[in-house]
Amino acid sequence: MTNIHDYLRWRGDLTAAQTPFNEVDALILAKLAYIPFEMIELRRGSAPVTVGEAAAALLARSDLAQCVHFKDDIDLLRELASSARFCDMRLSNYIDRIDEESQTQFAAITVQIADRLRYISYRGTDATLVGWKENFNMTFTFPVPAQKSALDYLEQTAAAEKGHFILGGHSKGGNLAMYAAAMAKPAVQCRINTVYNFDGPGFDEKMLNTPGYERVCDRMRTFVPQSSIVGLLLAHEEQYTIVKSAEKTGVMQHDISSWEVERDHLRYLDKVTNSSRFIDRTLKGWYADVDIEKREKFIDALYDIVSKTNARTLHDLDDNWLESAAVILSSYGSLDEDTKKVITNTLSLLIKNVRENLGPLLKEGRKAR
């Protein structure tokens, strides 16, 4: 298997002036949004620094390993620092905001690729419970605060900088990139070359039919792995490309470091797997069965239960899973009967959709043998 790390070793010596910017470059810069640049105080309004300078400063930190979001991020920083293709790109306007009260998790950074070309990279959901809650809020709230922040970020950056933009992001970051592009003023939309969505969810039908979305849809490029779960949520009007992941399960395939690379592009496949179609049908059927009000009550109730553990991240839950499980069970027991009924009925509808779609999945599996 070959991935973005192999790409950096193979083609990292070729500058953007020597070979055109491509989808693998866009994938790498989408991953860059997860790097904890707050450790070197690269904040909005501070002087731009090169990728090489930022990587060197971060790698000098003894506590870096405890702060990165993915285990291969340190390797990525080393590779970027020694890459002629990326090391002189300039970073600016980094923002990282968590707000538990408004249930907002938002982070973005601008990468100057060339004199008049910048890439705005939006971070996907991190390990914070607030970040995951905001993700689920997308099923009943539009727009969520992070989507509004993504649009503000684009328009403020466009007002301050000349030239054109590429927008991109992984997971929720891909959705934020598409939302910002679709909702931007027409004068800003004209300056957007491409929007890259790497396994990020789509939108409901109302969004897909807006004039702004229709103006930029042909510039949107969505990529999902063969057993995608997140990337097929909600609806996509733009065409999507299926890519090969070295991982076996849909959850693990969401990790873009597992996506396979062939020279200057990702490795394409013809279709998603049966399991991906099964999950897609099941979740969309559940989404249609549960009205907006019940979705909101269900998700809010689950979040309130988990919040009683005082965990701030998924790692906190995992590290104290026995204690957290006891608190969750106790919290559920203390809920009022109406809230328990909402949770029970909503889960029943999910199970119903699982059963309805399991038969076609098994039938497709038998035909494939």
Structure description:
This protein is of the alpha/beta class and 369 residues long. It folds into two domains: 4-272, Rossmann fold, CATH 3.40.50; 279-368, no CATH class. It is built from 16 helices and eleven strands. The model has no long low-confidence stretch (mean pLDDT 85).
Q: How is the secondary structure organized here?
A:
Elements: H1 4-11, H2 23-32, E1 49-50, H3 51-59, H4 73-81, E2 90-99, E3 104-114, E4 117-122, H5 129-137, H6 145-160, E5 164-170, H7 172-183, H8 186-189, E6 192-198, H9 205-208, H10 211-216, E7 220-225, E8 240-243, H11 250-253, E9 261-262, E10 265-266, E11 268-269, H12 274-289, H13 292-307, H14 314-319, H15 321-333, H16 337-368
Parallel strand pairs: 4-5, 5-6, 6-7, 7-8
Antiparallel strand pairs: 1-2, 2-3, 3-4, 8-11, 9-10
Helix pairs in contact: 3-4, 5-13, 6-7, 12-16, 13-16
List keywords for this structure.
two-stranded antiparallel ribbon, 11 strands, Rossmann fold, 369 residues, globular, single chain
The fold-level CATH name of the largest domain is Rossmann fold
CATH architecture of the largest domain: 3-Layer(aba) Sandwich
Task: Round the mean pLDDT to the nearest integer and report it.
Answer: 85
> In order across it, which strands form the biggest sheet?
1-2-3-4-5-6-7-8-11
**Ends distance:** 26 Å
Helix content: 40-55%
Number of helices: 16
Main CATH class of the largest domain: Alpha Beta
Number of domains: 2
Question: What percentage of the residues does DSSP assign to strands (E)?
Answer: 15-25%
Q: Uncertain regions: pLDDT < 50 for 5+ in a row?
A: none
